[in-house]
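Hi Y.,

Following your request, here is the sequence exactly as I used it, all 341 residues.
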Amino acid sequence: MSTQSIIVAPAADLPDWARRSVDLANPRIGARALHASDDFFAEVSRMLNPDPAVFIPGKYDDNGKWMDGWETRRKRTTGHDWCLLKLGRRGIIRGFDVDTSHFTGNYAPAVSIEATVSDSDDVATLKAARWTEILPSVSLGASAHHLFAIASQEAWTHLRVNIYPDGGIARLRVYGQPVGAFDNPNLTYDLAAMENGGRAVAWNDSHYGSVSNLLLPDRGRDMGDGWETRRRREPGNDWCIVQLGAAGTLEKIEIDTAHFKGNYPDRCSIQGAFMAGGTDQSAVTQSMFWPFILPEQPLSMDAIHTFVGEIAAHGPITHVRINVIPDGGLSRVRLWGKVKE
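Below is the corresponding structure, written out as tokens. Let me know if you'd prefer a different format.
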């Protein structure tokens, strides 16, 4: 019996401005492709897939070679191809990763990106909108990550991606910071949620899954849709650090071990602190000495654990350190609280 080989694109070597950002084009937080001038070979929605691009030798569909990204047909007229995207959250954009992984003789030679603010996803309305160029035309190469920082300080809701004249892009990451998520100081929000600007800062191990998965909406789809460390064979415990979308005071904590049955942590605890500045590395160093917001609590398999009365009194915090003891997997972490006024 033959097996089909799959080649996975390597991850980008992200600069600091990207590591400190949320991917505003992630469909898991509501981003979606609205329209493309052409996507004959590969539909535009694939370009937003949060998973790395793959190449499957020998895979074809009715239109030709199957490609994991957005690919237009060879243009035989004047002009260029383009698409309209809705960001998952209105946000300030710090830059892009335009990834052409696995596109070699068919990549787009150049790209530019425009942005607008709109309450409508209607294509005709967006076509008539006033667009601002935030990434002037830049050249692209074959099968590579292209990282572009921008200086825009405005918050945007939609993008128009132009490729010149045609071709393919495997993935587009839009790195930035959501704004306007906390518009009522009297409401309780999930301060760690990715759609509210929460981000994974650091971790000691993420052998399976990703720390960022802890901050996604909904319950995990499977064990891979969470954060799981390797089996610990030495003293101590595993941990990760999360920066909240805004400084606030926690009122309820939810730890979800969905799908983790023989590999959930025995216990967990959470430490927290207010950090007015510093680097991600300084947070790692300081986090060992942060006070406990949630003292050690037992966990069980495949369940949502809710803590309210167990939360220690504390002032506003910007960062938390989530300790899993001694190791294991979590699916989601919800940190409900009020934003500091």
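The chain has a mean pLDDT of 96.

Thanks again,
Q.
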